[in-house]
Amino acid sequence: MGIRLSGCVIHGDKRGRKLGFPTANLSIAPGVELPPDGVYSCIVWLPGQTTHHGATASVGNNPTFDDVKERRVEIYIHDFDGTLYGHELNICLLTRLRDMRRFSGLDDLTGQTERDVAQSRAMLAHHALTGLLP
After folding, report:
1. Tens digit of pLDDT for each residue in 22-32?
2. % pLDDT > 90, the chain
3. Beta partners for 121?
4. Taking the CB of residue 21, how many other CB atoms lie within 10 A of it?
5. Average pLDDT for residues 105-128, to the nearest whole number?
6. pLDDT above 80 for 127
7. Quick check: 47 and 110 in contact, CB under 8 A?
8. Residue 134: inside a domain, yes or no?
9. Considering only CA atoms, which of 106, 50, 39, 29 is closest in space to residue 76?
10. Domain count of the chain?
11. Is the separation of the CB atoms in 57 and 74 below 8 Å?
12. Where is the Riboflavin kinase domain positioned along the sequence (predicted)?
C-alpha cells in the first residue's frame, strides 16, 4: 500500500487516552487526499529519530461518537509513551485492516481496538521478516 502522510500533532478529544490507546491526532494540510476511511497498520517516524515505530492508524470520522463531523487521522504508536503536540509526524500506511464502523458501546470499541493493534503488530512483524519495511 505505502500511502504517506504528514501532519502536525494537535489536541484531540482525548477519548483514545481514556480507552487505553492514546493517539497522535494529525492536522493534515487542506487539499491532501486522504485514503478511504478505515483502520490501518502503519509506521511512523518520530521527531529527531531516524528509525520508525510501528503504529495503528484510524482514518475517518469516528462513527461511534456522533459529535465528530470531520475526517481525522489518529495514530496509536505501539510501545510509545510521550508527548508529541506541535511536532510534525511522517507516517506510511501499509495495510488496511478493516472498514471504519460504529460500535454499540465503549467496551465493544475497546475490544476491537485491542484486536486491531494485535493484527497491526502481526502485520508489521511479517513485513519486517520479509524485508518490506524500510
Report:
1. 999 999 998 99
2. 54
3. none
4. 19
5. 89
6. no
7. no
8. no
9. 39
10. 1
11. yes
12. 4-125
100, three cell numbers: 471504519
In the numeric block, the cell 502481526 is attached to: 122
Evaluate whether residue 26 is within a structural domain.
yes
Q: Tell me how long the chain is.
A: 134
Residue 129 pLDDT more than 80? no
Query: What domain range is 114 assigned to?
Result: 3-129
CA–CA separation, 32 and 29 (whole Å) = 6
Mean pLDDT of 31-41: 94
| Amino acid at the residue 83 | T
Q: CATH code at 110?
A: 2.40.30.30
Cα Dmax for the chain: 41
CB atoms closer than 10 angstroms to residue 87: 13
Q: Which of 79, 27, 25 is nearest to 53 (CA)?
A: 79
* 71-108 pLDDT tens trace: 889 999 999 988 999 999 999 999 999 998 888 888 88
CA distance 23 to 26: 9
Instruction: Judge whether residue 131 has pLDDT over 70.
Output: no
Here the cell at position 50 is 531516524
DSSP secondary structure code for residue 85 in this structure: T
